[in-house]
């Protein structure tokens, strides 16, 4: 009776050994997956760093996109806020940095001065108000525009500020003069004023036409007083 029992135990041991051998790859696979989850070599940390890097790139991209609109916002804010406050510590232009312009026939008592020192639009308006009790020049006919152009063409600058500025909101935007006079004349270059660009108006020294430009640009300018 002992021999059949011994034979049965031997067969059972052989079958168990075969089962363990066949199932070994599966167990090894499970072990490998567990090891990967635990990530002893730091690859999970690298994945986390990569995710943070991608997030950083996205944030940086948003910042670039935001800064792309920042200039336009500041440009618009500068002119929508109305006339800038007077700068009492402002240095007035030296006489050698200014050129007198022949008066407009429509205003016998008006004086006009070309200031060659570059300023932003707001700074230029401040100079005209603080130093000459006037404003950036308004132009109301072709003859006077031609006089300003002829004088401005002699300086080494492509554009100068005149007193035109875009004000208002959305569909109610319109060009105005800083001295409050009526907008009854314009001499725009081809394609101008368009639907985009700066909110302030320049006169081109090459051909005398007008173009829009960002108000923070530093240019020579003409004051009337």
UniProtKB/TrEMBL annotation:
**Which residues, if any, are the signal sequence?**
1-17
Stretches for region Disordered: 32-56
Instruction: Kindly state which keywords UniProt assigns to this record, in alphabetical order.
Output: Disulfide bond, Lectin, Signal
Please report the stretch or stretches of sequence annotated as the C-type lectin domain.
112-224
Q: Which Gene3D superfamilies match?
A: Mannose-Binding Protein A, subunit A
Transmembrane feature ranges: none
**Superkingdom:** Eukaryota
Q: Name one GO biological process term.
A: leukotriene biosynthetic process
Per the record's keyword annotation, is Signal included, yes or no? yes
GO molecular function annotation: carbohydrate binding
Q: Which residues form a coiled coil?
A: none
**Which PROSITE patterns does the entry mention?**
C_TYPE_LECTIN_1, C_TYPE_LECTIN_2
Signal among keywords: yes
* Identification of the protein by name: Proteoglycan 3, pro eosinophil major basic protein 2
**Which species?**
Marmota marmota marmota (Alpine marmot)
Lineage of the organism:
Eukaryota, Metazoa, Chordata, Craniata, Vertebrata
Please state the gene responsible for encoding this protein.
PRG3
């Amino acid at each position: 009776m002992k021999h059949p029992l011994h034979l049965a135990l031997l067969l059972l041991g052989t079958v168990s050994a075969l089962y363990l051998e066949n199932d070994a790859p599966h167990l090894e696979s499970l072990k490998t997956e567990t090891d990967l989850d635990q990530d002893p070599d730091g690859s999970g940390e690298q994945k986390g760093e990569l995710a943070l890097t991608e997030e950083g790139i996205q944030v940086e991209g948003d910042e670039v996109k935001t800064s792309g609109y920042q200039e336009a916002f500041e440009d618009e804010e500068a002119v929508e806020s109305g006339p800038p406050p007077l700068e009492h510590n402002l240095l007035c232009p030296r006489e050698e940095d200014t050129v007198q312009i022949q008066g407009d026939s429509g205003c016998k008592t008006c004086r006009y001065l070309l200031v060659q020192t570059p300023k932003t639009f707001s700074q230029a308006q401040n100079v005209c108000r603080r130093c000459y009790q006037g404003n950036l020049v308004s132009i109301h006919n072709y003859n006077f525009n031609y006089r300003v152009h002829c004088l401005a063409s002699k300086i080494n600058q492509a554009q100068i500020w005149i007193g035109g500025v875009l004000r208002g909101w959305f569909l109610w935007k319109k060009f105005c003069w800083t001295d409050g006079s009526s907008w009854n004349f314009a001499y725009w270059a081809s394609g101008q004023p368009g639907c985009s660009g700066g909110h302030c108006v320049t006169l081109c020294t090459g051909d005398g036409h007008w173009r829009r430009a960002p108000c923070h640009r530093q240019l020579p300018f003409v004051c009337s007083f």
